[in-house]
Structures are given as structure tokens and as C-alpha cells.
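Entry 14. Ran structure prediction on the chain below.
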Amino acid sequence: MAIQSVQAYLNGAWYTLTYNSGTSKYEATLTAPGSTSYNLTDHVYPMQIKATNTAGTAKTVDTTDATVGTALKLRVKETVKPTISVTSPGAGAYVTNNKQPIVFQLRDESGGSGIDLTTLALKIDGGTSFINGSAGMVCTAVSLGYDCTYTPQTALTDGSHTVTVNVSDYDANTATQASRSYAVDTVAPTLNITNPANNFLTNSAALTIQGSTNDATSSPVTVTVKLNNVDQGAVTLTSGAFTKAITLASGANTIIVTATDAAGKVTAVTLTGTLDTSIPVISSVTITPNPADTGASMIISVAVTG
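Output, C-alpha cells:
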């Protein structure tokens, strides 16, 4: 008997194949399903082939057939890359925690094959890869992916660091690498006040604060000066050095100079001093004896107040 028709079943529809005399086979050009097969049973679209002869006898085979069953398992892959988003630390941030948690999100598209956590690799400064299951790595499943946090188990040195994150989906689409640079700063800035000395005493209300500051990790440093708890305005730094003219109040004064680096670390110096503008009063002078004989001893007595 001759073959009357050959059909292929895919994704809920039957398709008729045409005999190709050049290959002596029945063929058809089909369009692959628009969704990945990864989420289906065995990660495949199961196909069937039905052949019918001119006598009307039909034979249907599917994925269970011992001869051609494996060939009828169609693997369809989606081609959309997953995404990685680092949410903390912020780009260019200064952090004071040398084990600052790194927070990031992994997402695949709706209907995609899903994030393959076995491909997750996080590196700090290009070093060891921290993967899912590494100490400090926690990934929580959410819609379309995972929210992850990696907490360094070894303290990072002060200075700049770069984190990279890579991941793929189950259809082997690799996400664009995410990169984030930030600086660790656990040390407060230096602050040296060269004028005035603490516990100063002066008769001039005009006083110039002089000093210098520096921070090796997170310059520039900002400096503020408060006199008796009143901010004295902007302080200009030149290569870390600064001066600030202030006007003292009569009597006791408190000066607080504060240096703050980009990470928010603070160093403060408190100075106290007194402005005394009083003028001595000479109220009486007595010279005894007066007049005095030549070469004789005499006593001078002066009364002074203030």
C-alpha cells in the first residue's frame, strides 16, 4: 500500500507534511512555539507523527516510541537575557561598614525559562566567586526571579572596591554583567588646630582659627566652625589647610571645629578660651618718704584694680 498522508502534531495543532522526492521523506516547515519549553514536562514540547496509507490504516507515534520517541521531544529556547540590578551600595557611595551587604535583584521575563541560580557568580575586586550557597549569600525567590544579599565574611580594606555579578537563565541566556563601585571608609579624618591653643586668654575679640585636615580614603573633607554654638559660615580649604576669622564674645567662649569626610565620619576639636577687654585702674600711688634724701631708701605703693 502507498502512503496517503503524513501529519505532525505540535503544540495543539496538526500539520500536513509533503513528500520530497529528492530526499524520499515527508517534510514541512513549521514555526517553533513562541514560549520556552523549559517550563513543560521534561522541558520539551512532545510531538506526534501520524502516517496514513491509501487503505486508511493509520499509525501514530509519540515520545514513548522506542525507535523515534526521543526525536519527537522538541526543545525550544527563549532568547531574552535575564537582568541584574545592584540596589546597594549606591554607585560611588562611601560606606563606613567594612562588611557592607551587597543587595541585588535577578529577574527573567514573564514566561521565560527562569533564573538558574547555579550560574550566579559575585566577585569583589575580581577575586573569588561567591555563588549561591556561599556563606553570606542569601537569595529569596520572588516573582520572575530572586532578591539576593551578599554580606562579605571578611572585612574589606578601606578604599575603593568593585563588585561584579553574573547569572544566566535555564536557556543559557547570559545577563549583561552588573558592576558597582563604592568606597569603604572606617577612619575619621585627621584634624589639627594650630591656632588658638586650648584655654586661650586674649584681649582682642578678633580671632583667626587656623588648622589642617585630611582623609586618605574619602576626601574632600568639609570643615565647620561653631562659636558658642553658632555656626560661623563656610570654611574654605586649600590643600587641606584652612583659616576662619571669628569675633569672640566678652568672657568665656567655646569653639568647636568639626571635620566631616565623604563617608560621614566626623572628627571634632573643642577649644575654650576667654576674651578679657578690661583696663587696669590705678587708683592711688604713695611714695614714702617723699621728699627723700639723696641716696636714701624709699617705698612706692600702688593700688591697682581690674
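The longest strand covers residues 159-169. Will compare against last week's run tomorrow.
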